[in-house]
Task: structure prediction
Amino acid sequence: MISLNIEKTFGFISKESVSAYEAQVKAAQEALENGTGKGNDFLGWLHLPSSISKEHLADLKATAQVLRDNCEVVIVAGIGGSYLGARAVIEALSNSFTWLQEKKTAPVMIYAGHNIGEDYLYELTEFLKDKKFGVINISKSGTTTETALAFRLLKKQCEDQRGKEMAKKVIVAVTDAKKGAARVTADKEGYKSFIIPDNVGGRFSVLTPVGLLPIAVAGFDIEQLVSGAANMEKACGADVPFAENPAAIYAATRNELYKNGKKIEILVNFCPKLHYVSEWWKQLYGESEGKDNKGIFPAAVDFSTDLHSMGQWIQEGERTIFETVISVDKVNHKLEVPSDEANLDGLNFLAGKRVDEVNKMAELGTQLAHVDGGVPNMRIVIPELSEYSIGQLLYFFEKACGISGYLLGVNPFNQPGVEAYKKNMFALLNKPGYEEESKAIQARL
Ligand code: PA5
Result:
């Protein structure tokens, strides 16, 4: 079971000030449960883990198997909420080097549609030239430019390389039930497709086919993932007392820190495989809370790597930050530091120790140093990197985000701000329907 420790925030805020959120958290929980808060048409994620059926998981697994049987490489085309969750889970659970090895037990997973880099897309199409590849095209709106553009290229290449019949088999759509270009294409071409429920927003969609299908293709146990999330759904339920509810405590603590001038939350890991969990978390909190001219700025670092770059700023820069550390209790493999007779590197004091013991001391030493330097510190401990634990972690952050957004007084489930750049881009590119905007923007240049 994952656990949360907020002891190291108490030099900066008091225990009582966190406990004082109990009534507000209760109100937020009730608003979520009863659907009476802002953005209440996007609460489908709330009881999603406990409502996913065995049949749905079997359908996902069967489709995943088709891709596994017919592809050496699978491209996940999507952006934001339509790709970060899958990538977070897959990278957290994958061997760091399998994709470089000759013999593979699962297709290599590659991501596209999350940028408009011409070189990236060119290099991808070149790489795919001699590969048996498939595509999972993920877009809730079905009209996102980045994803649609990448998919246009990939669809053509897949059909040209593998033939129309095979392309039909290895291209899968995850999109809206009725609207959007991705739905139109899937229906017309006869692709297998999965539906993203109307009431689940992109950044809360990792436990829908958006995340579950790619995760299953990569060879991970989606039943365990969902089961971990369902366990956390219970542990963070509205009926769990405030003091025992990790999502409630996390939401309250970060809001209290924010009120006390800590405007930036840095999510820290000491395990490189968690990099994309941080990317997913940044989107979840950034897009949910950064509005109405308020909201904690979510940042992330990978330690100890970034101790050698961002460490200085964190130790001695402006004191507007706090850290939330994701600590992995048990690593999956054992590696000891060897003894060396010459000891030229002076490391014999570590001989016989597990590498993880060194890492854990780096973690503890960093926590103490940063707290001494004026950085409040929370710790989330996950037992190990497994589907079950990651499922717990994902739901924990989602639930805390819903509560936290309501504590902040914003609608955590919309993202009106992301439209501004799209409007300008379409006007600059003379997209049909944007004639007036095109004229206006040209006049500004
Ligand atoms: O969380 C969100 O809503 C966004 O990040 C979307 O997921 C992202 O913009 C992609 O949108 P779509 O799935 O419609 O292509």
